[in-house]
Amino acid sequence: MSRHEPLRSLVCRLATFLAIICGVCLLPACAVVKAGPVGLPLTTCVLRDAPGMTAAKLFRHPHGFDCKTPQVRFGDGDFWLMSQPLDVTAGVDRLAVRSSTVWQRATTVHALFADGTIVSIRSDDRAVSRDLRLGAISQRWLPRRQAPLVRLLWHIEGVSNIRGLLLAPTVATGGEVGRSDIHLAALYAAIAGACTALLLFNLGLAYALRHRYMRFYCVMMLSLIAYVISSSGALAWLTPDLANTARMKINYALLALTGISALAFLGDFFEQGVMTARLRRLSIISSVAVGVPTLGIVAIAPIELHVLDTAYALGFLLLLGSVVPILFNAWRQHSAFLPFFTLAWAVPLVLAVVRVLWGMFGGPYSFWLDNSSVLSMTLEALLSSLAIGHRVLLLARERDEAREQEIAARLLADTDPLTGLLNRRAFLRSAIGCEGDFTLLVIDLDHFKRVNETIGHDGGDEVLRIFARTLRQSLPADALVARLGGEEFAVVTGANAGALADQILDRLRNARMPFDIQVTASIGTCTGPLMREVDWKALYRSADAALYEAKAAGRDRTRGSPALQRFAA
Fold this sequence. Notes:
Blueprint: H1 5-25, H2 27-32, E1 40-41, E2 44-48, H3 55-60, E3 77-83, E4 95-100, E5 106-113, E6 118-124, H4 125-130, E7 132-133, E8 137-142, E9 149-159, E10 167-173, H5 174-209, H6 212-231, H7 234-238, H8 244-269, H9 277-300, H10 305-321, H11 323-332, H12 338-360, H13 367-370, H14 372-414, H15 424-431, E11 434-445, H16 448-474, E12 480-485, E13 488-494, H17 500-510, E14 521-530, H18 533-552, E15 558-560
Helix pairs in contact: 1-12, 1-14, 5-6, 5-14, 6-8, 6-14, 8-9, 9-10, 10-12, 12-14, 16-17
């Protein structure tokens, strides 16, 4: 088991728990919350517009309407749609006619009341935008009347029949509308808040880590937040004069930008070797396949909107499909991040494919499936942030390990491998350049050649290690101690060293040596400045001369040289 395995298991469990929580809070809640297409659902029958048709005539003679053919088969143009017979009394509350928006030039709602009154409300492209509610639901308030509402008739002009002529029509009371707005506001605010928090968090990471995939992730989060604002209808509240079809163009563009940046983020997130040149070409092709029809929709729609929308959907299928070989190659490369991305992308991929296929083959309209992109991409962003957090943790560990290895390498370069003391180079680097006067002790073990001959070189090495340990125990904490070579050692300490040399010799005499042999040393000392290399050379010559005096006097003793004066600059 690798050392990352327990952490990986823990994070995977946390990610699974988070996915369950998000699924419980977002997706099932969408089916339970009274939001979106609230109120009394309406079934509609379709009749293509012809000269001379009026609401009054059609209410009197509701013949010729087609109630069986799916709406997407009627094509583009102008149409009349009639609801089933109704018996709705508003009472003290107001009634609203609601439906999800479609690409159209204008819509007129005709309401027939039991007293024979027909109320007509016409909305062009800009008026639809001003009447938009959260969830991108077009809503028209009917005037209060005592008579019950018995039927509704829509006259839709210039409709581009992409998903249908009239999506999810309902009649709702003011109370139902208010509750729907509250629930959707809470849902969209939670999504936008989570995305904003993730964006700020990852902007900080992007600034700190400087990884390219973080920039793509931040672009994805920005476009997702903008898509939530636009697709939820909140953009129409911010810019009430914006045409609804212009808002739908913005939806296309933002969703495409979210998908392209998400793929770019995925491609750069994995380890080197996962994103091969072939996979990178595939991601570029799929991004272009989404981007080109998006530009066409923004530039010329509703001209050739059916062709552009189909190309847009096919491009998204290619974009989604290109994720699979990337994940497969990550699996082949044993990527440490694959479990997180499999978990994070599973729901968005499945829902995105279902939504694209549903749109291409004209499946029945679903408000929550139409909003699944926002929900699934939010879930993906949450789990991807968990994966990013895991990667940051791995990067931090790699950095710490590299730092520890660098420190260890530096220590190895600066220390004597046998005794662990400073080597000559590190010793001189630390000693030379210090202000004030210092005492240098040059120490040499007596008759060390005889020690090696008596107990062998391994025994001699052990003697050197014991002596090095004895030195460290005898010296103050701020003293510099080094092995200059062989059995020669040096110590730099404060000028007021006093009886330090004698203490070292006493400790050495009492040290427990291999085979209980007796080991002694001779020490030469000298006090002086260490500002420059010339100071060191003079101090060393004097201490070394004192060392030879100690040896000449019989060894196992210390001798000192007169203190040196600072050289003139």
